[in-house]
Hints:
alpha/beta; 12 helices; elongated
Amino acid sequence: MTLQAFAKQKDYLICVDSDGCAMDTMDIKHFRCFGPxxxxxxxxxxxxxxxxxxxxxxxxYSGTRGINRFKGLALALTExxxxxxxxxxxxxxxxxxxxxxxxxxxxxxEAAKTAKGPALAKALSWSKKVNAAIDxxxxxxxxxxxxxxxxLAAAHQAADVAIVSSANREAVEEEWTRCGLLPSxxxxxxxDSGSKAACIAQLKAKGYNPAHILxxxxxxxxxxxxxxxxxxxxxxxxxxxxxxxxxxxAKALPALLSGSYGPYxxxxxxxxxxxxx
Length: 277
């Protein structure tokens, strides 16, 4: 069901991110697609191991987890320019990633037409290669984390459940349908519905008490979207996803339903920050 057509059915609402949160697809995309395609596009094979480790740190295991692909690329190439070898036009790419109103293939293709250096055009080439590599990943490698199906089923008994993801709708629908998760979902809010913060705001406007809304996510951007709307946040901890989902079912969901989530949520926020140092 779309956001526009959705109507509140229960007193509680649980919003769930997809990539890297419910679906074990974030690591594999960075390990096999984003990082290796950067090494290939800029000819960095000589330093591939440390560069790929740093790419994963930026995009998966630090406070910039979940950063937009072009912002992550600009950060990585700026470091590479200083540590390994010059990257022509990297400052121009970094400036575009910092100030452009839209960060997409279409936007960077337009910006590349008037760019002084080659970095924007190469970034577009890289992004297209990444998309092709992701499309080529076997379906069997795109699966939910252990405990997700059970957690969503438990959540759905007591609450409306919304997917709130920045991924494209077609990919989310395909993955969640194939993995049998959609029966526990009431509404899909994806890339075409607006930002995560905007989606939560529109869902909240359906009539929920903010204290009855919980955003489940794995990245600082998910917590920011929840905070902007004054709703609760539960983190799925990177490298501890299965344990996080088990704890959601055992502790977080009961705490939300009993009205005691506040202190527990503060404790989880500290664990979330410590995990992304």
